[in-house]
Design goal:
It is a single chain. The chain has 616 residues and is an alpha/beta fold. Helix content is 30%, strand content 22%. Helix 4 (176-188) packs parallel to helix 6 (249-260) and helix 8 packs parallel to helix 11. The relative contact order is 0.09. Bound molecules: acetamide and zinc ion. Residues 339-340, 389, 406 line the site of acetamide (ACM).
Amino acid sequence: MKKYCLLVILAAVLGTSCHRSVTVTNLNIIPEPVFQVQKEGSYTLKDNPAISMVNLGQNSSTARYIMKSLRHAHLRPTLVSSTENNDIELILNDTVNSELGDEGYLLEVRSTGIRMSANTETGLFYAYQTFIQMLPTDVVKTSYHAITLPECTILDYPRFSWRGAHLDVCRHFFPIKFVKKYIDVMAMYKLNKFHFHLTDDHGWRLPSEKYPRLNTVGSWRVDRDDQPWGQAEPAQEGERTTYGGFYSREELVDLVQYAANRGIEIIPEIEMPGHTCALLASYPQLSCDGQPCEIPIGPYWPPKDIVCAGNDSTLIVFKDLLDEMLEIFPSKYIHIGGDEAVWDKWKQCPRCQRRIRTEHLRDEAELQGWFMRQIEDHLASRGRTVIGWDEVDDGSLSSNAVVMAWRGVQNGMTAARDGSKVIMCPTSHCYLDYYQADSRYQPASIGGLITLSKAYEFDPVPMGTNSHIAANILGGQCNLWTEYINTPSHAEYMLLPRMLAISEKLWSQQEATDWNHFRRKVEDHKNRLSAKGYNYCEGSFTPQFKVRKIDDHTMNVAIETEVPNTYIFYTTDMSTPTRQSAIYLGPINLERGTHIKILPVYNDIERDSIYEYVIK
Ligand code: ACM
Ligand code: ZN
């Protein structure tokens, strides 16, 4: 019996691992490369490829990443020293190819093998990300004996140097394992700046030796995680604070290296002077009135707690905390927040008012500017450059400070016109905590609506921007605030696939981007993401209704999804629609009160749920 079982298992393994071969015909690279040409011939990659590396030490992080990733894709690569007749050649250019710059690459699939070359390890890393996207979408789950790839040449480099994604780990706390998974998916799509939002009203996530109460008090709140964010019951008197956590120094040091190995720089953020409730809960003496604030457990608006700008200790504490943070994060840029400060407490505070007088400031707005400037000068003395949310663009920071435009592209354009460097992440296109489809069919979110096609309309440098302004726009990023997101799986659902749209808009040349083409590629990538264990949203297939009155009883109903070539099957008799139901061909007249039920089908796959709508 035992023997029989073994044989069955062996046969199953052989069946899945040794005899499968596949021919790839279409390339679906995201972000779209600058230049890509597919040719007639092909190359068959065996599952035991010989790899050579030229000018790339086999212990370099890129070489190690690539070898490990190939094994993850069920290949058994062997490093060889000969540079002739290898399956895969990785070449760090001897002579710089100026067209490629620091992040570009050349990838060629020839009849004789695959060749990737770049000026830098980062360029090679991106060549590899493109290469891996050529392989079947399930390659991390399935062993292929042979993968036949079309001959092709891809020459590629990014449009913007700042291609970011942000993650708020304060409103909800996410384990470091998930943060790594987030970084992994950023790397797949050639994003290179991870904006780590580490402190806010709802929790302090940085470790601090000097100010331990930040971790014993400020990192924890009363647990209401089983209740919807907007309906959390108030904390009881004396209730223990058990939700939260913070990262250890070792975890963060390791994370920085993990990200760097994937071409990603981590930009940490300490928020100030507002969004500091977790800090003030830990050290109430830093507030204007000395009263402790309670770490909120749900919506907190307006965020009125603010550090006292008239108290010298406040600046000392922030400088200390920044210094501790700088030891962990080597990034050139440090984010110092600056958004949404509410100055009511400053108006009532004798010390803040004294500071306004002694520093010859006009008002609380100038007091905030003065405060941020003290922090900027401190960081500059440590060789770092500050980034602030676009509220900081009031003339108080130096011209080196970078403005992160979140309230609108226009704010970024103004700052860029005035000579500041700018990162665009407007709420209109880049806030991935917003709904991505009709809210009736989505998990609760903070509001707004940014569908995939809307995200794909993002352009950090809108058409027609003059070159002087354009030169100051470093790029853009998507932001993931997590008030309504409390699990890794939900974070992925909000991020994907919209992050892919943002990535293509940050990497690809403006003229190379095309919604219909992108949308087709996304299907392939959803399979790829799913094979890697990522969750994603099918919101693009949610029907959008346009209803027009014909007479008192009848309405004309137009239905569409944002994806061309989606078939819409529907019923109006309360039955569940199937592919045998009526197919929608154009606007239909329906009586008021009719229940219409819809089944969207795309690429022969039934999408998500059945959608129901009552004609009113
Ligand atoms: C922000 O969304 N308050 C930067
Ligand atoms: Zn004060």
